[in-house]
Specification:
two-stranded antiparallel ribbon; six-stranded mixed sheet; 2 domains; about 200 residues; Arc Repressor Mutant, subunit A; Rossmann fold; alpha/beta
Length: about 200
């Protein structure tokens, strides 16, 4: 990925995550962003001070973070810088995702499911559509906050809905722990973790 200022990358990731999950903890943000908790706390306080995020609550275990209208505007501007101004990179990502899908399936058409609902999920979906492979839908973990009921006309479903639905390749565009996969008891599901290649 192009070399964007680290602060902008941090801000974008926090704003995007808070928008989707106000209950997200600093520890989880730390894990996702591969930063220490102190750095995440500093970034959050800076965004709060700038009026981009509003913090609600006193108990550290029950604190919620809400993105403000100014925060939404800032997130959109950052997204534009990362994606809108770099069409060449966008095309490279699409080509790379397609190549990884073909490699994971040995070129054999397989039903595709996507775990996650964010920018990477949308790009991945467009790749699957262009390949004209059967699409099983968008999936999220139990307890995840759904901001939209559907995406590209497909209903967003809980991960457990993939149970006993036949062979499928699940493309991870969001964090999914081994424990969560085990709890979902998914059978005949192959996993391709795209998030590990396209973290920002």
């Amino acid at each position: 990925m192009p070399n964007y200022p680290k602060k902008e990358i941090t801000d974008y990731h926090i704003l995007k995550t808070v928008e989707n999950d106000p209950s997200v903890s600093q520890r989880r943000l730390s894990s996702q962003m591969e930063l220490n908790v102190a750095s995440v706390n500093f970034a959050l306080q800076r965004l709060i001070k700038k009026g981009l995020i509003r913090m609600v609550g006193v108990n550290p275990r029950r604190i919620k973070y809400y993105i403000t209208p100014n925060g939404l505007s800032e997130k959109t501007q950052l997204a534009y810088r990362f994606f809108g101004r770099n069409i060449h990179f966008y095309k490279e990502v699409r080509n790379d995702i397609e190549a990884r899908i073909i490699k994971a399936t040995n070129g054999s058409k397989t039903r595709i499911a996507i775990y996650g609902i964010d920018e990477l999920s949308e790009i991945t979906y467009m790749v699957v559509e262009a390949m004209r492979w059967k699409f099983a839908g968008f999936f999220i973990a139990e307890g995840s906050k759904i901001t939209n009921k559907d995406l590209f006309g497909h209903k967003i479903q809980k991960l457990e809905a993939l149970k006993n639905t036949g062979q499928c390749l699940l493309l991870l565009t969001d964090e999914l722990s081994e424990e969560m996969l085990s709890d979902s008891d998914l059978k005949n599901i192959d996993i391709l973790n795209l998030l590990s290649y396209y973290k920002y």
